[in-house]
Design goal:
single chain, alpha/beta, seven-stranded mixed sheet, two-stranded parallel sheet, about 15% strand
Length: about 250
């Protein structure tokens, strides 16, 4: 397993997650004892930041990044990635604070990272599942993944999923080019990895809808992401057509 020889950092963005942050960190510390945790808090008004500070004081594996405003999930992750790379971590992981990503399944992602540059915990490969979601939300999620695969030609079943593990070298190569900060951020990361010719693996996970607190997701955010993905896809395919049309002319 990769945990024996690599420094692992799990980045957990938070905004008003006071009911969840202690539980998820405790489960994570039990699941992967060697892992470090970076809580990237977007100035939560509900005392999440204070709880995180208290945990960090008691456990040297827990670190806290206090951000000044709620600037989006992607911005929090990018800040966490840069911090982790500067600190010399070998493996960096994205994980939600609300328990939807099961810390007990993280070893599966870490194991798969031994033969991939990025590993996605997938709801939509054989063995993956979603628990406690209304069918309407699952259908929207599946449709979004299908549309993204169609537009970008990416053979990834759960491209919008946010439970992801990266080699440090993978992130170093892609984050200067990542431009998304919202729901499309996960698509952006995966798209950049594939564009660099690197390997993306998927392992099945069980995604469990949060039991405490309120979801930050909305239909408008998803639609915005799909529109951006469509624009990327049109640009990508147009570029390929132009490249083919302007290819070398064979001698008569």
């Amino acid at each position: 397993m990769t945990t024996a020889t690599n420094k692992i950092l799990v980045i957990i963005p938070t905004y008003n997650e006071k009911d969840n942050i202690e539980i998820i960190c405790s489960r994570l510390r039990a699941a992967v004892e060697d892992a470090h945790i970076l809580i990237a808090d977007d100035n939560s008004p509900d005392s999440t930041g204070e709880i995180a500070d208290r945990m960090a004081d008691a456990d040297p594996h827990i670190h806290v990044m206090h951000r000044t405003a709620k600037n989006g999930l992607g911005a929090a992750y990018l800040a966490g990635f840069r911090w982790g790379l500067a600190q010399g971590y070998d493996i960096l992981v994205e994980m939600d604070a609300d328990g939807s990503h099961q810390p007990e399944q993280l070893p599966l992602l870490l194991e798969a990272l031994s033969h991939a540059d990025m590993v996605k915990g997938s709801r939509y490969v054989p063995g993956g599942s979603v628990v406690n979601w209304p069918k309407s939300r699952e259908l929207l999620s599946r449709a979004g993944s299908f549309w993204t695969r169609l537009m970008l030609g990416i053979p990834v079943a759960d491209i919008t999923g946010g439970f992801n593990a990266f080699r440090a070298a993978t992130l170093s190569a892609i984050i200067p080019e990542v431009t998304s900060v919202g729901y499309n951020f996960q698509v952006d990361l995966t798209w950049r990895v594939i564009q660099k010719g690197m390997t993306v693996a998927e392992v099945p996970i069980t995604f469990v809808e949060r039991e405490r607190g309120q979801s930050k997701m909305s239909g408008g955010i998803v639609i915005e992401a799909l529109l951006k993905t469509t624009a990327w896809g049109v640009s990508y395919r147009a570029g390929r057509v132009l490249s083919w049309l302007s290819g070398p002319v064979r001698p008569a």
